[in-house]
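thought: fold this chain, then report.
action: predict
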Amino acid sequence: MKNDSTTHSSTHSHRVMSAFRNSIIISALDRFCCLIYEMLSTGIFAKIFSGQKKTSLSTDESQNTKSYGSLSKLREWTAQKIENAKLVNAVNSCASNLLICRLRVIGTYLLSFALYTGLFAFIAVFLSNKALVRHTAYVRLVEALTLGAVSVPFIVSRQTLSSALKRSKICTKLLEALGFSVNKFDMQGKGGRYVTAFIFGMLSGIASVKVSPLFIIVGLFALLYVYAVLAVPEFGVMSLFFLMPFAPTMALAGLTIFVTGAFALKIIRKKRVLSLARIDFIALIFAFLLLCAGFVSLSTKSIAPSLVFVCFMAGYFLVSCCMRSEEWLTKCINALIFSALLVAFYGIIQYVLGGSGSTKWLDSDLFENIAGRAVSTLENPNMLGEYLILIIPIAAAVWMTGHGMPRKNSFCCAACLSMCLILTWSRGAWLGFILSVLILLLIWNRRSVWIIVGGLLALPFATLVLPDSIISRFTSIGNMADTSTSYRVGIWRGAMHMLNDHLFSGIGIGEGAWKVLYPDYTLPGIEAAPHSHNLFIQIGLESGIFGLAVFLIFIFLLARMCFTLFSRMSDSKLAEGAKYKMLAAGPLCGIIAVLCQGLTDYSWYNYRVYLMFWLVAGLIPAIVKSADRSVAASSCAGISSEINDDTEASINIKISSDDTGDKRS
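observation:
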């Protein structure tokens, strides 16, 4: 009886769903969705944004390889010099010796370090009468005791560093997450000398008189990091994705230059292939115009920011050209999402605990019910909002595809990022987020139009669900009574006059050039403004109309590359076509969201967010190249299987003819 009732209820629900789907309204919506998608795939939009449906990645790479023909001798000579350099051989030898070093030798170094650090700290406690010196000495004693405790497990171990890394599950997982194979650390032999380790520990202890032992240990790990980036530049690119919200601007600039140099060395040594597409040359032209705008400027202070801009644009080429495998792409995306999760979590905790209670970004008279705005590590709610809307579509795309991490994890990450986005109270970021979600849903499935229509129909009931603070904040968009809105409108009017007078030449990069000219165009009451509060106006002002045109061409080609991929994945029989489609749609929607917010704010005011913009932009050509490799691999597999089938068929035919001949005889 229970089974019969269950069957009856499922049949009834099926009938209800069928009646719902076949209703006049739903059928009309479905036909409307099909019409829209047909227009997008075959109409003017498709002709503009869809390029050739078949691209040959191997051809591009071969062309780039041939371009080295005139410089092949110089390249061979340089590669030979690098390979035979004493410094390179010494570094490789040190790395190999470190892997086969016994843990007891490392423990000896740590114990010697601890003994001499404690000895000098003990002497300082009894010989110095200064309170600051004595306090530092007590801290050194604690650090020495910590080093001594850490050295004990190393001293009692009989393993080498290589075998310890292989046997430790935690180290194995960590190395794999960082992109290193544990098998590469499998080296035989036992090395290391106790006397040498003791002497180095003694020297480190002497250095602790001036430098904290913690800094010395961090410095040693920094040397290992430098070697890892030189060996695997992709690891450095992944580090940029993770460190962007936390590291200072100049540290990120130095890391970008170093990773670029490491990748260039790999190209010279023929360990990597440099493949440039048409869009990459457009990016190079834009970087050149930014550099020119720094040196040809109304202020000498424009040189430094232009160099930073060009340096961070190298991040685009690193991601586009350096991510040579889907595995590294996945690691970079995961590092990006995990880093953003930490930023969002910190922003939420900061807001809840009242650490972001500053109201200097709010009209306190108009928004009395908002205590403050989350800023997290980016120190500005609008910049935090831009960073989040750049990452949320990527996290959502990972959730939709289930690629790289479990769906529940990626969903929680996207939800946490969205919650922090709300707490920024950035209306421009909210608008960009809504636009990016709509586009992502349309790319995901044509029936997602139903969700959009349902959302529009539910808008009148939003006041019953959403808090009044969110409703009032969102509905204040365009309200000239809000000082933030009127402030921006006044700046835009002055900036447009500036742009009209310097349309072709531009004024130069950065605040220096802006402050020289803006006072002549400012309106009363809006004298203090660091920029134009509009991304497109600011680009036109700084690099001229040609710089703005080149940037728009770059964005167009980036979108065209994505939609061409969507068309190819729809036409191809690749099983993972939907995955590549959504993985490319995530960064594209993030960039569209930032450009939408750029209509109300200068999105590149924060150098670190500017770096992340170009890193995310580089993900799109990298994903497209990865998809091309998968299509090429599946095509080769299909051809080989057809060849095998034809061979088997010919063999069968031959056997049957022989059998026939035998019967005739």
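thought: worth noting. Confidence is low (pLDDT under 50) at residues 52-68, 645-665.
final: tokens above.
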